[in-house]
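Thread: pyridoxal-5'-phosphate complex, take 2
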Amino acid sequence: MTSSGADGPPVAPRLAGGLLTIDLNALAGNWAKLAEIAAPAECAAVVKGDGYGIGLEQATEALGRAGCSTFFVALPEEGFRARRVLPEATVYVLDGLLPGCAGDYAAAGLRPVLGSRPEIEEWSAFCGKRAERLPAAIHVDTGINRLGLEEAEFDALTARPGAFDDFHPALLMSHLACADTPDHPLNAEQLARFKAVRAKLPDVPASLANSAATLALPDSRLDLVRPGVALYGGAALTDRPNPMRAVVQMGARIVQMRSARAGETVGYGAVETLKRDSRLAIVAVGYADGFHRAAGSSDDRPGGRGVIDGHSLPIVGRISMDLIALDATDLPDGVATRGGLVELIGHTISVDEVAANAGTIGYEILTGLGRRFHREYRQAVASY
Ligand SMILES: *Cc1c(COP(=O)(O)O)cnc(C)c1O
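Output below.
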């Protein structure tokens, strides 16, 4: 199936500077693998950030088909989109209840993740008025200091009889700060704190684990796990091989092959000088497409690479808005030609390699994937 990004008109493949191939079978397979690892805990899916860049609707549909029935988004708008795809799914809004919006959440059947006293009061008042105990999650902070009730606030609430009478606490959750570093002492500390929190509402299902914790911290799996990045093929843990399948493949179109002489420079700022006579493949992907400028190369520092037919093509010089120069000198004749495609992300070059070359993390590469690509979704899905 073929589609544009979430917005903007579709780009015909022959007219596109870059092609994104999104393997929804790999996404579904990654979910099934995490579900097996997490069992008997339920495996939910986080589809915030436009489904980590691959398309919220397509991701939600494929995950629903794989058997996932609980979804997490960051914002209500994302919740509306997930709800349109899966009318029956459970959808939690991680950023909580935005003020004055309880009616919007209720109308769409979204569950706010309540992380402060004002949110709990507002949701309680709304439910009280409707005389309907609508479900919501309660988020308790155990050490990340981002969202969630302070433990003391939570203790005070649970000590008050009837504090949760007006709504239905359907999930009790917290979030780990250092799950990607399994040996970090804060993990054990947060888990111990969360267990104490849980003891105060023992009948409510509990959730703590993101991707990294699902994979590496078995004690954190509890009743429900909330993986995000691992579903999309990203490495949740950097100290070991990534067991997940790649979901995203990025191909960049060669728009020109050119020769340049030893001693000449390539690209803006003339920061890289050629050490030999070279063949350059100029491809039509740049930082406007989410391929970070920080992965460029200079005389002082190597950059990222592309791959064609198993051959590596190092990036030469700065990455510009719309173009990257790649060194094709060592390629046999006829391998890199005008109109051909160079892999920038895929089975040979992981999202995490691209991220490392740009000094960032795979999450940022995925969620920053640009809007100009021709997007092709493998596995038939409905079109949006
Ligand atoms: C984003 C997020 C997740 C998913 O995290 P990954 O590291 O992508 O698996 C889980 N829980 C919360 C609260 C989040 O914000």
